[in-house]
Amino acid sequence: MKKILLVSPQSENEALWVTGDESAEVRNNFPPLGLATIAALTPPDRYEVQLWDENVHGLIDENTDVGADYDLVGLTGFNIHLRRCAEVAGVFRARGILTAIGGPGISSSTLAFRDKFDILFINEAEFTWPQFLDDWDAGHHKAEYRQIDKPDLTHSPPPRWTSIEKDLCRYSMGTVQTTRGCPFDCEFCDVIYLFGRRPRHKPIERVLDEIRTLAGYGLTTMFLSDDEFSGDRRYSKALCRELIRLNAAREQPLTFTTQISLSISRDKEFLELLADANFDLVFIGVESVSQESLIGAGKVQNVKGGDIAAQIREILSYGIGIRAGLIVGFDEDELAIFDRQFDFVQESHLTSFGINMLKAPLGTRLWQRLMRERRVIDLSPNRGLLGHPRSYTNIIPKRLGRVELMEAFETCSSAPIPGKASQPGSRVSFRWSPARRPTIRPTTSPPTPWWRKRQATIRRRNP
Ligand code: B12
Ligand code: SF4
Fold it and tell me: Least CB-packed of 76, 136, 383, 391 within 10 Å?
């Protein structure tokens, strides 16, 4: 029987999501969902599959004993992981083992990394991986498999976690994907190229089964691993109703978290459902307090609701915490944007946030426009020297000097939080210099009736 090892590369960025506040055994936030899906697409009667997450199982180098003689090593990753994927592939190629790579990273940066792996899987692999396995068995596999159509998610099998089930306690949450795709079209984002604008969803019963499986392994928080959980609102509301039922039948409710758009601040029914389903934190691409920058970036869904700080407070008032993504370096941004973002964090009472410099990912509308304007810098020859991806950008900003932007960013982001400086995680979020560090104030607006109801519900469920 052929043996396959599926590796998720070490990710400094991801390891940093572990704040140090979790229990000692937690090594990573998210178990490798893409690899568990590939494992599920691999017939167990023909192949043995083992998952290996470098953040949990250790770094792989030429001396590492991976426990068996594998016939194939498959890697996964986003674009920020590709360099590490290439290093790991190099280790196995030196041992004469066939290597493959799939995931969004190689799907969007195919050319730059083509020669680092033997077989490339571009885009989603629900159809191409089984096709490869048949070709491989028949002795004539191709060097590249490319999925053009976007598969209906009923074709995506429930992820198979069995090979790492003992290690699932080392993750702070379970991952379940309910939809792929996003109806919006932000200029800097490649989600719609990779996954389409029409959200595709899994049948609700399937989602519930996946949640129950992970809960059975002892995980109590579930990350719904979607681009935009509210993209198909009828579906996500129906799912929330089922999550409420699922929790009601449990002694201890599960906690949910996901990525969602700011536009939910205008949908009270949805906010109530999210709160009642026990979503305690959502990631929102807030990006900027500047309406001009948001309009320029095509992030109109944030602008439609008016005052952004008020929209955030509305969501917080339901007891749903927000981790916000912020961006500096839009064409409309001047140096004052740093102060404006700072004041905005104060005013909105954001519970958590991370900040990035605007980058133009290959192929996005932003990349195309800035290429025409000759404002994209090819950093690939220097990639090894650049350090952490948060500390540089591949664009020439419009109103800010490039050095000015990077210096201002570095000044703000390098100040450690007192008492946390030595812990992993202390640099993952944007830290304003100590004098300017925001204090999270208690909300000044009176609690809404729903907030009070949610508090009562929480108290009832956790006496
Ligand atoms: C959930 C999510 C997160 C979560 C959890 C991340 C995690 N590690 O699990 C959080 C919020 C933390 C996050 C953070 C970031 N994310 Co994110 N995230 C996603 C999201 C929405 C879902 C990922 C997922 O779970 N997919 C479900 C699985 C089943 O899909 P999959 O892994 O793609 O696997 C399929 C195929 O790709 C393929 N495949 C994958 N691996 C392999 C391997 C082999 C061998 C084979 C054959 C096939 C194969 O087969 C699978 C079935 O089709 C995606 C968008 C999306 N819809 O996928 C963005 C996405 C992956 N993230 C992205 C980015 C940029 C980031 C950040 C860098 C953002 C930032 N600036 O900080 C950070 C990086 C953090 C890190 N170090 O991991 C980009 C990546 C862009 C790219 N081209 O690489 C995406 C595509 C969104 C986007 N366009 O902006 N993210
Ligand atoms: S809402 Fe989020 S996922 Fe959708 S296009 Fe904008 S940035 Fe990308």
Answer: 383
Q: Name the residue at shortest CA distance from atom 1 of ligand 2.
A: 184
**Whether the Cβ atoms of residue 39 and residue 8 lie closer than 8 Å to each other:** no
Tokens 């999501």 found at: 17
Helix axis angle for 268-276 and 233-248, nearest 10°, is 30
pLDDT digits (tens, 9 = 90+) for 32-60: 999 999 999 999 999 999 999 999 999 99
Q: Quick one: average pLDDT of 354-383? A: 87
Q: Is 103 in the pocket of ligand 1 (CB under 6 A)?
A: yes
* Ligand lying nearest the CA atom of residue 429: 1
Closest Cα to atom 4 of ligand 1 = 225
What CATH number was assigned to the domain covering residues 2-153?
Answer: 3.40.50.280
pLDDT digits (tens, 9 = 90+) for 222-237: 999 999 999 999 999 9
Is the beta carbon of 228 within 6 A of some atom in ligand 2?
yes
- Cα 129 to Cα 200: distance, rounded to the nearest angstrom: 20
Could you tell which of 5, 30, 78, 362 is best to mutate to test the pocket of ligand 1, judged by most ligand atoms within 8 Å of the CB?
78
Contact 338, 164 (CB under 8 A): no
pLDDT the model gives residue 453:
58
For residue 13, the model assigns a pLDDT of 56
Q: Check pocket membership of 172 for ligand 1, CB cut-off 6 A.
A: no
Q: Mean pLDDT lowest for which of 3-12, 217-226, 298-307, 372-381?
A: 372-381
